[in-house]
Amino acid sequence: DHFNFFNVYFPNGQMSAERLEYKLDFYEKFFEYTDSLKNEGRSLIITGDYNTAHNEIDLKNPKTNQNTSGFLRIERDWLDRITQKGYVDTFRHFFPDTVKYSWWTYRFKARDRNVGWRIDYFFVTEDMIKKGWIKEAFIENNILGSDHCPIGLVLEM
Fold it and tell me: Which residues cross the membrane (predicted)?
C-alpha cells in the first residue's frame, strides 16, 4: 500500500479580482491533476495552507468576514467541491464541532485573544478513511513562532 503526499501553499486572494481569479484557477488546475491520480486509484494526502476558511466554525468572526478574501462564498464553494469529489477534511472528520484555529493575524493581538481562522488542512481521499489508515488529526495551537501553528495527522498502514 502506498499514497501520494502533497504539501501545498494555495494562493491568497488578497482582496483583488486578479488575485482571486489566480487563486481559483490554481485550485482548478491542482485538483484536475489530483483528480486524475485519484481516478487511477491512488490514495492522496493534500496538506497545506489553503488560505480559505471552509465553514463558519472555522473562523472567529464569520459574519464580519463574509466579504473578506479567505471567506468569500466563491472560495468556500471550492472547498465544498473538494469534499464532494471524495476528499475528507481530517480534522473535521475527528472533531466536527471543535473550534480550533491554525492562523492568526499579527495585528490587534489576535492570537492572544484567539481571533483566528482555520485555513490549514489535511485533506485525504475517502479510501484512506475507509481503510482505517487515518488514526488522528490535530492542531497544535499552543506552539508559537509563526502566524500559523502546526497541524498534524497520524497515519497507520
Answer: none
